[in-house]
Amino acid sequence: MMSVSMGSKKLNTCCVASMNCLPDEFIVQILSLLPTKQAASTSVFSKRWRTLFAFWHDLDFDDSIFWHPEEGKQDRDDIQESFRSFVDRTLALQGGAPINKFSLKCGNEHDDEPDNVHIDRWISNALELGVSELLLCLSSVTRHHFPSNVFSSTTLVKLTLGTKLSIYSFPSDTSLPALKVLFLDSIWCDIEEFSGVFLAGFPALEDLTIQHNDSFPGMTGVISSKTIKRLSISYNYADYVEFCSIYALDTPNVVDLYYSCYARPWYSHCNLDSLAKATLDLRMLEGEGVIDTDVTELINGIHNVKTLHLTSSSVEVISVCCKGGLPVFENLVDLVFLGNIGQGWKVLLPLLLENSPNLKTLVLSALDHWTYRYCFVGIRITPKNQVKMLSIMQYEGSAKELKQISHFLLKMECLEVLKVYAAAVINDSKKIQLTEDLLKLPRASSKLKIQVM
């Protein structure tokens, strides 16, 4: 399509001439497929193309394009000035035309450097143009303040802030009435400011994601919102878990929860009454952390869930650290249970089957890699279970797996479908043999159908 990299000048001229025959909106659509820097560089081909930035709806600025891949190049003054000039020129070409998305990724800046004046001006410019999606990835910046209109925009629908930013306070009149999606990547701020001022200013917020990497401490405290429907929390910071993670969720309208974190010593309360789907990826601290860890309140908080996905590490944590006992999961219909490490599954799976009277679908994975030989053989499966579909992932067809599946088929009288998903190494001829072996297994249900995928 574009002739920038072609060797023939004549061919370049032909391609540009051909494109110049297209309507403006077509050219804009074609150039919008390129990163902003590459799209802007095409303006050298035609003066007409320079004016097309008035139709540009998505702007993406990333300073790494200017210094990658040379190490240390980003510290050179001429490289930084080149990036600043490029952003200034591009925004000037935009004129007063509205934009939908403004993405700014840049690093190696500090609060006491005048370069932040440029960043603030760019952000304010985008907000004045009515941007609906704002992504600010200001790496290695300790920022105490943003332009005030970041927290008072009436057009922002999606806001992303990161990374490794410390925000000590928010404007008392914070108000983003149209904001629906908020993504925070390694942000530290006072939790009272966060819930009491920041979140309180988003009356339409539906989707909140908070993540922290392993070298930056997170917020601690309560996430409180009556409007959030999807909540994702990922903390990979193992140090000072008690002081750098969320201990309470006051989010009564959340229907979809993803929670990945080192298990805390305690949880205050979890108001998740509307929860329909939850994925837990709990991890155990090394050493003696298990002695003081208790996830009872968190597990009680998700008792209304309909679909529950437990990672292998979560199975181990819950089996050991849910010291108040499991609640009854009255609404649980679908359970994905990945427990191929440790011995926690031996305790937790029978309890979940017993405490989930309406469970209909059970998914297990990689039976050949579970810790103990024939691990499920003899495990208690309540005769009252209502499981109708059993799915086995990453099936390799070993005698160990076959014997374990047989145990389930004999104990699940309501079972209607057994779905076995063969591992990637299994070819079609092997699948035929696996199917024949599975069909020979005795079963308690006369309605059972076996499918090998």
TrEMBL record:
It comes from the Eukaryota. InterPro entries: F-box_AtFBL13-like (IPR053781), F-box_dom (IPR001810), FBD (IPR006566), FBL60-like (IPR055294), LRR_FXL15/At3g58940/PEG3-like (IPR055411). Pfam families: F-box-like, LRR_At5g56370. PROSITE patterns: FBOX. Residues 16-64 form the F-box domain. This is FBD domain. It comes from Arabidopsis suecica.
